[in-house]
């Protein structure tokens, strides 16, 4: 098997995650889809690391995880705050950013 | 002695500054300060004159450079004064007659609460006029020129509470601006042609420039002179300027303002001599104006307006003479000086009459005043004799010389000009006699007419009775200047003509040549006498022998036209106001349609596009995410394409 | 090329991962989405291990699946576990545009990967020779030390930020017990304890309301949840009927005919 298949899988997962971000309205699910996209990227990085025979790709994936963790903490805090004030976790309800 | 020249301008300017900035503290002494300042400048002028007299005839020019005014690269203009025979003549006229008018104003404006300000303006007028005649370059002359315009505006509109005075001031200012534009263009042309403004280089090298250039400069200078000297076609402001206090009229008509145009033409003699077309235009303007003013003067019942027409006519004589070239420059200035005396005297006399008649200006309501105002009568009468050219008085010498010079021009031109000048002399005699007779002779029409056969006139008469004037002689402070001026009117011409003194005095500056008149000098004098007597006789028969109706008769077409200043305002209205209106309306239409259309169209297009584009901003984060994602896709596509290519 | 075992593993688990991803997107309940995502992440962890990233594989399971996804679940529970999303689109054209973009993006990514010259395949044998964790550590603390330090700062900031965001400042004093009692009296609420249900011995069950003196059931005596579900057993009529039947039977047995009725 050619390891390029890992890359195709990463692309597929990334695309599915993107579709979820665009389609779902529940902020938490949208967030999960973002996590899915990040994971797809990590998979691609790990595969690249293996292809090139060095560990830099894994380091990047590691940093991505750390950043994703921080992002999750902040993102979920924001979702909670919005939910508290608006009693809704729908991203469409927070649509004040318009004329 | 050079320092005195600067002082000459500075003294009245300081006087004006002190009077205008001094506030009410100076109210009680302001008029005397103003008069003293004028007298002081006259003394300075006299000292300078004496100094010049003491020099040789070809060494009578003093140049003072006061400071470097505009030194910018190749452009260099100095503020400097030049005193020569021509300017010192003007200086003496301006300060001399000006001082007398100041003195007269002390009495005339005695009851005006803004008298201090009036004297401040008078001093400013003197200062500007002195700057004008003393400048040694055209740029500084322009400053004086504008200063005169400003001072005349302030003085004509001095009784600004009267709408007519405010309007007249505005009119004088606007018409003068037209002339000023001419002067500014002339100055610019001079700079591009000669690279300097100074009189010396410009006039010495005038013949080196092309004739076309010189003609343009000359015509522009003529336009400027027309504005200040109230010559056709820019004459319309002069009649309305009578709205100002009478001393102002005297100052404008005799000593300052209107003489500026003659000075400008005479000063620029070298340019006009080298540009025959411009010179011919000067002559034409002079001839037309002298008849125009004379005709207008015949029809006016307002004593000051009749005198204003007369001024226009007399300045026309001067411009005509100045247009004759070296034949006439000297006589133009000579007539200017003699005219300064007798016209100032006439205006002050008219003011004195008005002073005694409750400010009534309609001559048809005067009559028989010689008994009540003997001094005014005598001085006015001497001025009258001088202006009509009664032999031996000053007008006789100067005007006669101009008529001679006009004939001496030679050819058809000479006959036409001479004829016009002669005709003008006749009309002058006519209208001045009319003024004289209506004012000082005949019935006392200012008394309420006991006229039972005219019941319609009853209320008017009754109303008039309440304010019936009690004609009286004016105070000494007013009569003394009139007496001095009358003496000047009588003697000046004779003094100037003894041994051709005036000609010898001025000719180093202006040049002079005797023409070959096709008509003998004696013949011309005789003809002048004859037409003068004819004019006087006609007026006497028309107004002296017959009763004068208080309400003016309808009159012939020409009379009615002349009463309307020969339709000058109507023509201006039709040509300028209506034309301007149409032009502006057209421009407004273009502005509304084309410019606004383009601007509004652009705005509407942007607005419409924005309104549609705005729908993209629906506030839903997911929509924005789609845009971002689509953009990313496009970026990737572009990258891949770039790689592939 | 990789081993057959890895190929089989890939094809099996790739299907699972894709299904999990699709389920994450398509499940109506957030809990189900979260669980599907956890599954996909575990599969990815296996792939990391297969690709020689042993440290990352473990971290993926411990940090991601263990910590992050549990955090997600916490939030889902806080926000409301039962709330199911409707999948009906409300923004006009959103789904169409999203579909087009996703399709285009996917095709482009695929084309990009296919076009890239990725035929060399070195393997991590050499890099992992001294141990995967040691190799990573060497890189992190040498080449990427600044990025690492900055990441630390980012994490601390995130922690503080989360506290700031979710912290609610108390703006007034907490009510005392006395104040609460007074408020209850003023509110006109039920002051004494609620009546106990099923006062009859025969119906000693919580879904049977007590009877008021006139024989009608007292709703308050039944648990609130049962009331809301409509599971209150009204026994009053039944009890009367039973009583009547009992009396009948005892009369029959005692043969007291015609004594009553």
From TrEMBL, chain A:
GO CC annotation terms, alphabetical: NADH dehydrogenase complex; plasma membrane
EC number: 7.1.1.-
Broad class of the protein's primary localization: membrane
Spans through the membrane: 6-23, 28-48, 60-83
Lineage: Bacteria, Bacillati, Actinomycetota, Actinomycetes, Kitasatosporales
Reactions catalysed according to its record: a quinone + NADH + 5 H(+)(in) = a quinol + NAD(+) + 4 H(+)(out)
A Gene Ontology molecular function term of the record: quinone binding
Record localization: Cell membrane; Membrane
Protein name: NADH-quinone oxidoreductase subunit K
Keywords: Cell membrane, Membrane, NAD, Quinone, Translocase, Transmembrane, Transmembrane helix, Transport
Protein's UniProt keywords contain Chloroplast: no
Coiled-coil portions: none
Pfam families assigned to the protein according to its UniProt record, in alphabetical order: Oxidored_q2 (PF00420)
Subunit-level organization: NDH-1 is composed of 14 different subunits. Subunits NuoA, H, J, K, L, M, N constitute the membrane sector of the complex.
Assigned protein family: Belongs to the complex I subunit 4L family.
Function: NDH-1 shuttles electrons from NADH, via FMN and iron-sulfur (Fe-S) centers, to quinones in the respiratory chain. The immediate electron acceptor for the enzyme in this species is believed to be a menaquinone. Couples the redox reaction to proton translocation (for every two electrons transferred, four hydrogen ions are translocated across the cytoplasmic membrane), and thus conserves the redox energy in a proton gradient.
BP GO annotations: ATP synthesis coupled electron transport
Topology class, membrane: Multi-pass membrane protein
UniProtKB/TrEMBL annotation, chain B:
Cellular localization per UniProt: Endomembrane system; Membrane
Main location: membrane
Boundaries of every NADH-Ubiquinone oxidoreductase (complex I) chain 5 N-terminal domain copy: 69-119
Pfam families, alphabetized: Proton_antipo_M, Proton_antipo_N
Membrane topology category: Multi-pass membrane protein
Entry GO CC: endomembrane system; membrane
Region (Disordered): 448-472
The entry's keywords: Membrane, Transmembrane, Transmembrane helix
Biased composition (Low complexity): 457-469
GO biological process terms, semicolon-separated: ATP synthesis coupled electron transport; electron transport coupled proton transport
The NADH:quinone oxidoreductase/Mrp antiporter transmembrane domain, residue ranges: 135-417
Transmembrane segments: 31-52, 87-106, 118-135, 181-202, 214-234, 246-265, 277-299, 372-394, 414-432, 477-498, 518-541, 624-642
InterPro entries: NADHpl_OxRdtase_5_subgr (IPR018393), ND/Mrp_TM (IPR001750), NU5C-like (IPR003945), Proton_antipo_N (IPR001516)
Domain of life: Bacteria
Molecular function (Gene Ontology), one example: NADH dehydrogenase activity
Xref: NCBIfam families: NDH_I_L (TIGR01974), PRK06590.1 (NF005141)
Identification of the protein by name: NADH-quinone oxidoreductase subunit L
Organism expressing this protein natively: Streptomyces mashuensis
Gene name of the record: nuoL
TrEMBL record, chain C:
Gene3D superfamilies: NADH-ubiquinone/plastoquinone oxidoreductase chain 6, subunit NuoJ
Class of enzymatic activity (EC top level): translocase
Keyword Protease: no
Principal localisation: membrane
Subcellular location: Cell membrane
GO molecular-function terms, A-Z: NADH dehydrogenase (ubiquinone) activity; quinone binding
Transmembrane segments: 6-27, 34-55, 61-84, 96-116, 136-165
GO CC, alphabetical: plasma membrane
UniProt keyword terms in alphabetical order: Cell membrane, Membrane, NAD, Quinone, Transmembrane, Transmembrane helix
Entry EC number(s): 7.1.1.-
Membrane topology: Multi-pass membrane protein
Highest rank taxon of the organism: Bacteria
Entry-linked Pfam families: Oxidored_q3 (PF00499)
Annotated catalysed reactions: a quinone + NADH + 5 H(+)(in) = a quinol + NAD(+) + 4 H(+)(out)
Family: Belongs to the complex I subunit 6 family.
Protein name, as recorded: NADH-quinone oxidoreductase subunit J
Annotated source species: Streptomyces mashuensis
Upper taxonomic lineage: Bacteria, Bacillati, Actinomycetota, Actinomycetes, Kitasatosporales
């Amino acid at each position: 098997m050619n390891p390029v298949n890992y890359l195709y899988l990463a692309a597929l997962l990334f695309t599915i995650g993107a579709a979820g971000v665009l389609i779902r309205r529940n902020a938490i699910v949208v967030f999960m889809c973002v996590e899915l996209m990040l994971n797809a990227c990590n998979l691609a990085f790990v595969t690249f690391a293996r292809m090139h025979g060095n560990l830099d790709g894994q380091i990047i994936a590691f940093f991505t995880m750390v950043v994703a963790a921080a992002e999750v903490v902040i993102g979920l805090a924001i979702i909670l705050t919005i939910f508290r004030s608006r009693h809704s976790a729908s991203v469409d309800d927070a649509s004040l950013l318009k004329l | 002695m050079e320092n005195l020249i600067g002082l000459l301008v500075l003294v009245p300017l300081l006087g004006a500054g002190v009077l205008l900035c001094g506030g009410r503290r100076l109210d009680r002494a302001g008029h005397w300060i103003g008069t003293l300042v004028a007298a002081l400048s006259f003394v300075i002028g006299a000292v300078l004159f004496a100094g010049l007299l003491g020099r040789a005839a070809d060494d009578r020019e003093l140049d003072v450079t006061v400071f470097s005014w505009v030194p910018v690269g190749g452009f260099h203009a100095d503020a400097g004064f030049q005193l020569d025979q021509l300017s010192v003549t003007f200086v003496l006229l301006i300060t001399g007659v000006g001082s007398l008018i100041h003195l007269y104003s002390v009495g005339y404006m005695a009851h005006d609460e803004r008298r201090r300000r009036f004297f401040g303006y008078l001093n400013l007028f003197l200062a500007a006029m002195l700057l004008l005649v003393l400048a040694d370059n055209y740029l500084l002359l322009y400053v004086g020129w504008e200063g005169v315009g400003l001072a005349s505006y302030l003085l004509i509109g001095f009784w600004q509470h009267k709408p007519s005075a405010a309007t007249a001031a505005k009119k004088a200012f606007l018409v003068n601006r037209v002339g000023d534009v001419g002067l500014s263009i002339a100055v610019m042309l001079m700079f591009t042609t000669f690279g300097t403004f100074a009189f010396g280089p410009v006039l010495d090298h005038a013949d080196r420039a092309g004739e076309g250039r010189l003609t343009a400069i000359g015509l522009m200078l003529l336009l400027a002179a027309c504005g200040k000297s109230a010559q056709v076609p820019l004459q319309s402001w002069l009649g309305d300027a009578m709205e100002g206090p009478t001393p102002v009229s005297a100052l404008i008509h005799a000593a300052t303002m209107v003489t500026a145009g003659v000075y400008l033409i005479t000063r620029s003699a070298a340019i006009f001599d080298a540009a025959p077309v411009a010179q011919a235009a000067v002559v034409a303007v002079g001839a037309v104006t002298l008849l125009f003013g004379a005709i207008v003067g015949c029809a006016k019942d307002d004593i000051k307006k009749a005198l204003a027409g007369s001024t226009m006519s007399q300045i026309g004589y001067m411009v005509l003479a100045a247009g004759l070239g070296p034949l006439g420059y000297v006589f133009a200035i000579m007539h200017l000086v003699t005219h300064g005396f007798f016209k100032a005297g006439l205006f002050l006399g008219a003011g004195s009459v008005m002073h005694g008649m409750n400010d009534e200006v309609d001559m048809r309501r005067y009559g028989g005043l010689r008994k009540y105002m003997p001094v005014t009568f005598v001085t006015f009468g001497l001025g009258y004799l001088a202006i009509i050219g009664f032999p031996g008085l000053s007008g006789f010498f100067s005007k006669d010389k101009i008529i001679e010079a006009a004939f001496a021009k030679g050819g058809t031109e000479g006959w036409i000009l001479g004829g016009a000048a002669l005709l003008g002399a006749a009309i002058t005699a006519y209208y001045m006699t009319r003024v004289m007779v209506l004012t000082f002779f005949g019935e006392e029409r200012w008394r309420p007419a006991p006229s039972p056969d005219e019941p319609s006139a009853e209320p008017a008469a009754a109303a008039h009775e309440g304010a019936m004037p009690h004609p009286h002689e004016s105070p000494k402070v007013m009569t003394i200047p009139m007496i001095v001026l009358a003496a000047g009117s009588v003697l000046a011409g004779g003094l100037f003509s003894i041994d051709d003194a005036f000609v010898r005095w001025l000719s180093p500056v202006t040049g002079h040549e005797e023409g070959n008149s096709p008509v003998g000098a004696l013949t011309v004098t005789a003809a002048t006498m004859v037409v003068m007597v004819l004019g006087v006789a006609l007026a006497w028969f028309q107004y002296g022998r017959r009763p004068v109706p208080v309400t003016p008769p309808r009159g012939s077409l020409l009379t009615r036209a002349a009463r309307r200043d020969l339709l000058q305002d109507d023509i201006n209205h039709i040509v300028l106001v209506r034309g301007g209106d149409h032009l502006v309306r057209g421009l407004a239409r273009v502005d509304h349609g084309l410019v606004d259309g383009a601007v509004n169209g652009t705005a509407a297009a942007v607005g419409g596009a924005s309104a549609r584009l705005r729908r993209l901003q629906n506030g839903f984060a997911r929509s924005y995410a789609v845009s971002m994602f689509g953009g990313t896709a496009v970026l990737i596509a572009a990258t891949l394409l770039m790689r592939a290519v | 090329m990789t081993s057959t075992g890895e190929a089989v593993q890939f094809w099996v688990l790739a299907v699972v991962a894709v299904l999990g991803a699709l389920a994450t997107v398509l499940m109506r309940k957030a809990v189900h989405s979260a669980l599907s995502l956890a599954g996909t992440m575990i599969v990815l962890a296996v792939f990391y291990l297969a690709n020689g990233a042993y440290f990352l594989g473990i971290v993926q399971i411990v940090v991601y699946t263990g910590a992050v996804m549990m955090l997600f679940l916490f939030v889902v529970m806080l926000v409301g576990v039962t709330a199911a999303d409707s999948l009906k689109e409300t923004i006009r054209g959103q789904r169409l545009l999203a579909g087009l973009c996703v399709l285009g993006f996917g095709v482009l990514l695929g084309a990009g990967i296919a076009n890239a010259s990725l035929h060399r395949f070195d393997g991590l044998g050499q890099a992992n020779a001294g141990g995967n964790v040691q190799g990573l550590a060497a890189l992190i603390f040498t080449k990427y030390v600044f990025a690492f330090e900055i990441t630390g700062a980012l994490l601390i900031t995130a922690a503080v930020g989360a506290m700031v965001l979710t912290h609610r400042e108390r703006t007034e004093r907490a009510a005392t017990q006395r104040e609460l009692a007074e408020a209850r009296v003023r509110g006109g609420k039920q002051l004494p304890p609620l009546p106990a249900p099923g006062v009859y011995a025969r119906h000693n069950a919580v879904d049977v309301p007590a009877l008021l003196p006139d024989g009608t059931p007292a709703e308050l005596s039944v648990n609130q949840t049962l009331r809301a579900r409509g599971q209150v057993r009204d026994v009053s009529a039944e009890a009367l009927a039973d009583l009547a039947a009992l009396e009948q039977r005892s009369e029959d047995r005692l043969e007291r005919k015609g004594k009553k009725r």
